[in-house]
Amino acid sequence: MSKAAAAVALLLGLAAAGPSPAQQRSATPTAAPKVILIIGDGMDQHQITIARNYLAGNSGRLTLDTLPVRSSVQIQTVVEEDPRVPEYVADSANTATSIATGIVTSTGRIATTPGTDRDAPTIMELAAAAGFGTGIVVTSSVTDATPASFVAHVSYRLCESPRTMVPTNTANAVFAASDCSADLKANGGKGSIAEQIAASRIDIVLGGGERNFAQPAEGEPDKTVRDLAVANGFRVIGTADQLAGLKRGGKVLGLFAPSTMPVQWRGAGGAQAQRVQHADNGRVVLPEAFACEPDPAYAATPPLASMARAALDFLDDGRSFMLMVESSSIDKQSHARRPCGQIGELKQLDETLKLVLEYAAAHPETLVLVTADHSQAAQLVPETSWLAGLNAASPGYFARIRTPEGAVMGVNYATNDSNLQEDHTGADVPLFAYGAAANEVPAAVRQSDLFGIMVRHLGLEAPPAP
Amino acid sequence: MSKAAAAVALLLGLAAAGPSPAQQRSATPTAAPKVILIIGDGMDQHQITIARNYLAGNSGRLTLDTLPVRSSVQIQTVVEEDPRVPEYVADSANTATSIATGIVTSTGRIATTPGTDRDAPTIMELAAAAGFGTGIVVTSSVTDATPASFVAHVSYRLCESPRTMVPTNTANAVFAASDCSADLKANGGKGSIAEQIAASRIDIVLGGGERNFAQPAEGEPDKTVRDLAVANGFRVIGTADQLAGLKRGGKVLGLFAPSTMPVQWRGAGGAQAQRVQHADNGRVVLPEAFACEPDPAYAATPPLASMARAALDFLDDGRSFMLMVESSSIDKQSHARRPCGQIGELKQLDETLKLVLEYAAAHPETLVLVTADHSQAAQLVPETSWLAGLNAASPGYFARIRTPEGAVMGVNYATNDSNLQEDHTGADVPLFAYGAAANEVPAAVRQSDLFGIMVRHLGLEAPPAP
Predict the structure, then answer these.
(1) In the 8-state DSSP scheme, what is residue A262?
(2) B449: nearest CA in chain A?
(3) What torsion do the CA atoms of B296, B300, B303, B304 make, to the nearest 10 degrees?
(4) pLDDT at B101 over 80
(5) Strands B397-402 and A284-285
(6) Which residues contact B464 (CB under 8 A, 6 or more apart)?
(7) For residue A324, what is the enclosing H or E element?
(8) How far is CA A87 from the centre of its chain?
(9) Cβ contact (<8 Å) for B88 and A58?
């Protein structure tokens, strides 16, 4: 822009609006576009409100609440046997596949097409092929459904390691595709998720799942999957100290727990939701209210924010990068009816978001997206039923949480009556955006649209349909 | 703007952005700012997704999904006895009070302060005092909590008519303030909600609740509340034909049902959610899937869209106006575990929104807001539990809905185990905006902020704290 034009623009108030993302890129070629995608597994609106009430108070604000753009994500899942027919409740495999690849698939599938089992290219693979930095940071095993969908292609999410590739009972009500045989290397497949991570071009992968890499690789009884990763150039680390001392360069695989990483919080003394009891006279006896406390199992586990910080430092070399960060156990703790676990894991996400926003503020070429993959079971309900006078109470598992602001919050888990775990639910999930391209995020999207939004911001070419 | 400045602006791409709302108003004084607020009672994200799956399909779009601005609303409720302490689940009285007056109050209160019972001025009263048009259109009784909070001031939402003002059993677990005595005219109050509507300056009030106006007015045994309304200048109508033939001018009270208006849809043959049964061998027997069908009780009831159309025509006289339209029975049908009732009422809201958006497109000085007052019980869940192989199923009331696209959707109601009705839930609710001022709506608001957004758009002066 000429000085004269700039003066006119200033007079007309144009300066405040700033250059468009496209102008910015062409004007400053060193500011290569970056995407940081933060996923809260199962982080629906109930989860966010429950966590806010505890962490910031009913009138308080999470960092999440400060994001300037809000949207809603329509989840799509299809039936394996007839992909023209929808299913209304998703799992983390098919939803992460939608985000990572832009396709809609059946429950349990990892970056593969429904019915036809073709590989769908992922945003991480496209970014790596373009010479961009790539990173995956999660609190689950790095082989779990969400991270797997960004880097691997298998028909069934439980094909996590060489040991789980052997034929198992496939009569599984949940996952349409539940057979790993086509993915065995011996059958011309790419092997288990762990083996595909070991063979990948991802620059930095941090999370749990060490035991999946300690197994002998398929067809190579003398080598572990970890050995394959090392042979492919990965430095393998496993402690918070190693994470803190991480130097840039090469590739890093950080495995900080045998499987899912421990969570930060639990109910006081281990309290969780329980079935409402009845006294001898039939009257409802509600469970005692409890507060949250640090989970001793967490111990020296590196926080999600520390892992995300390390990944950002690692990737911040001037190139474009694609970083996916997931707080994985919001979902897992909700399945297990542990409200304080959920809240603590949403706290981890919110703390991570804070440092990501600081990074993005200093690097305006960064698009930050925060979303969930699917809805979960936990419901914020009255701490005593409105019909308590008629002896009514939750028919499911119920917790009463004593919040720091001096009130009691009811959390209900009642999607099924098993004593094992809750089901997912099917509501749209939230999407938040920050950064140069945030205003290009529509107010309502389909989950598979997220792929296109990221591909466009990074200037990648969308792949042909698989 | 001068021609030269306009040319420069055009060159710099300013034209596309258009004038700011303030510029627009000052440039065209005849385009008086207008607000159309649409409330879906209990319309949380589960309700919207359930309705979309049925009405438009899993990949389809509601009119709601086309709105350009999306936000999220944090609900606030306080304890009557100590308003410094929050409650985490709200009712329609305190939430509508937040929207209508900008204050935060306790459950059951209608535009009055918690503990101190002072009247809080409503947006309708401020608009009427400024000489603007005012309208209320609902499918509940016009004396129900949501509409009441825009036009009346009582301590307790059930103080709806002279008959309900007499002392009743106030041992009510739900509503903190549950005594009408201070609101009796004999005690210096303003009387019941119906009497306050009859005495109001609202230009057009349409909905149900005829029986509340057929009662003798307090202290005037020879006059009904309806007589008071007529004496105050209201034309009272009661049929769809009268609505269709409505002429502008004066004030109109349209009462199209004795209390809540019938709903448009029901489950086939009257089917609704039911408890899951167990066969003699203990195996789960899921309820039969059903589709939705027109509810014969609906008969000649005027649709919400027709009432909204009539109100818009009535108010569209060039002045500013404040119109509130509520699809009231999304909540009521969800309380009653009737998923097709919910879906049909959300359909009514979506059809109404369509015509409101057409109006707003032709009148760009109109701000359209769509929101819910609080979350509800219905959950979109798997149509067979993911643990069905272990004989797991909903512990509450459960429905399997056969959708037009050939799939089955599970809807679960399990906030309490009474056979009467569900409780509300406490999650943030959605907010959608359209129109000139829509971009001024932040991505996250507190419910009481909606009042300020409307006050500012209408150019009204915010009242002092009550």
Answers:
(1) P
(2) A59
(3) -100
(4) yes
(5) unpaired
(6) none
(7) strand A321-327
(8) 21
(9) yes
Chain A residue numbers with beta carbons less than 8 Å from the beta carbon of B87 are: 407
Q: Chain A window 425-444: which residues touch B at a Cβ cutoff of 8 Å? A: 425-428, 430, 432, 442-444
Q: What is the arithmetic mean of pLDDT over A107-123?
A: 97
d(CA A451, nearest CA chain B) in Å: 16
Model confidence at A21: pLDDT above 60: no
| Dist. CA A253–CA A151, nearest whole Å | 13
CB B457 within 8 A of CB A82: no
Confidence at residue A7, expressed as pLDDT on a 0 to 100 scale = 36
Sign of CA dihedral B128, B133, B138, B143: positive
Q: What is the pLDDT of residue B348?
A: 98
In the annotation, is A141 catalytic?
Answer: no
The bridge status of strand B204-208 relative to strand B251-255 is parallel
Q: Which one-letter DSSP state was computed for residue B137?
A: E
**Nearest by Cα to A421 from A335, A362, A294:** A335
CA-to-CA distance for B445 and A32, rounded, in angstroms? 33
Residues 11-30 of B with CB under 8 A from A: 12, 14
For B277, other C-beta atoms within 10 Å of its C-beta total 11
Of the ranges A3-12, A56-65, A213-222, B396-405, which one carries the lowest mean pLDDT score? A3-12
Query: B422 — contact with chain A (CB < 8 Å)?
Result: no
**Is domain B31-458 classified as CATH 3.40.640.10?**
no
Question: Which pair of structure tokens corresponds to residue A14?
Answer: 């144009």
Mutate to test the interface with A, among B14, B58, B375 (most CBs of A within 10 A): B58
CATH of domain A32-265+300-376+429-458: 3.40.720.10
Residue contact A85–B407, C-beta within 8 A: yes
Q: Token digits for A48? A: 């966010």
Distance of CA B2 to the CA centre of its chain: 45
By mean pLDDT, which of A15-19, A27-31, B111-115, B285-289 is the weakest? A15-19
In this structure, of A159-173, A376-390, A444-458, the range with the lowest mean pLDDT score is A159-173
By Cβ distance, the residue of A45, A61, A89 closest to B380 is: A89
* pLDDT at residue A175, as a whole number: 60
- Distance CA(B289)–CA(B275), nearest Å, equals 13
- Mapped onto helix, strand or coil, the DSSP state of residue B182 is helix
Residue A352 has pLDDT above 80, yes or no: yes
Q: Do B74 and A59 touch (CB under 8 A)?
A: yes
Rounded to a whole number of angstroms, the CA Rg of chain A reads 23
Task: Tell me the one-letter amino acid at A390.
Answer: L
CB–CB of A49/A378 below 8 Å? no
* DSSP string computed for A27-41: H-TTS--EEEEEEET
pLDDT at B18 over 50: no
Residue B439 and residue B441: Cα distance in Å, rounded? 5
A201 residue type, one letter: R
In the structure, what pLDDT confidence band is assigned to residue A282 with cuts at 50, 70 and 90?
confident
Question: Can you give the pLDDT at residue B250?
Answer: 96
Write down the ipTM of this complex. Answer: 0.93
State the burial class of residue A13 (Cβ atoms within 10 Å of its Cβ: 0-12, 13-18, 19+): exposed
How many helices and strands, by DSSP H and E, does chain B display? Answer: 14, 22
Q: What is the pLDDT of residue A437?
A: 87
CA torsion angle A183 A189 A195 A201 (round to 10): -130
Give the pLDDT confidence score for residue B166 in this predicted structure: 74
Say what the pTM is: 0.93
| % of chain B beyond a pLDDT of 90 | 86
Quick one: pLDDT at residue A248?
A: 94
Instruction: Cite the active site residues of B.
Output: 92
> Nearest-CA residue of chain B relative to A63?
B444
The C-alpha atoms of residue A85 and residue A97 are separated, in whole angstroms, by 18
Residue B168, pLDDT score: 56
For A78, the closest chain B residue by CA position comes to B58
Chain A environment of B407 (Cβ under 8 Å): 79, 85-88
